[in-house]
Design goal:
Keywords: Lyase. The structure is a single chain. It is built from eleven helices and eight strands. It is α/β, with parallel strands linked by helices and 280 residues long. The protein has a single domain, classed as Phosphoenolpyruvate-binding domains (TIM Barrel, Alpha-Beta Barrel). It is globular. The relative contact order is 0.15.
Amino acid sequence: MVTAAQRRSAFNALHVKGKAFLMPNPFDIGSARILDGMRFDALATSSAGFAWARGVRDAEGLIGRDDALAHAADIISVTSLPVNGDLENGFGDSPEDVVETIKGAIEVGLAGCSIEDYSQDPKIPFYPLDLAVERIKAASAYVKENAPEFVLTARSEGPVKSEHELDQTIKRLNAFKDAGADCVYAPMLKDKAQITKILGAVDAPLNILAGRPNFHLTRKELGDLGVARISIGSGLARLAYGAFTAAAEDMKDGGSFGCFDRDPSAEMPVNFEDFMKAKP
């Protein structure tokens, strides 16, 4: 049986510039079993996917630390792959809150986690840089003392539409790297020129979010640029819930049931039920 330390070591080793390893995000045990069966390099939780499964909105404080860590433990329990945790803002504003979350993440067996600078306060949506840095610094210090191969990812959530915004993102990512982050992540990035600029300005493994509309760079292209890691975020959960909602809408408003004509096992190269646990 693979140990938590082995998962951390394997996950840490994946973070190489240009590797562009793919880390999809299951949103429940069933989707985790499917992705485990396909043998990706690693998996990650999705705060949005889990929130939707619980019937609540993401990033509004409706999912607590204990719930998120219990969900992560569920995902870990059905895979031997390393699992990264999407742990939002660390479930609190202070560096001490973030450390408590990191402690829990290591205890449940996560191989790494991300901490974002989005405060969930609509009046001040992003933490001031000095506080954001102190949060990462405290998290890094705890990791280095207790689980050195645990991968701490720091996220800069701000917009990157203008050159000024992109420069501010670079400033934050560099500050997070200097504070001890092992990987950096700016979810708003999707333009090739912007990604190239970030990679040239920030000397740390970079995660790119690919699971969203109008993202047209391939894994090879991202690897050639120097991207270390590709995550899917809520993309798979959004597709699943979107297909479910569209089928329900067809039934209710159209009164027809053509949405069930498609036979997944006949039309898809992989049948999802093949990955589900069967009776011995």
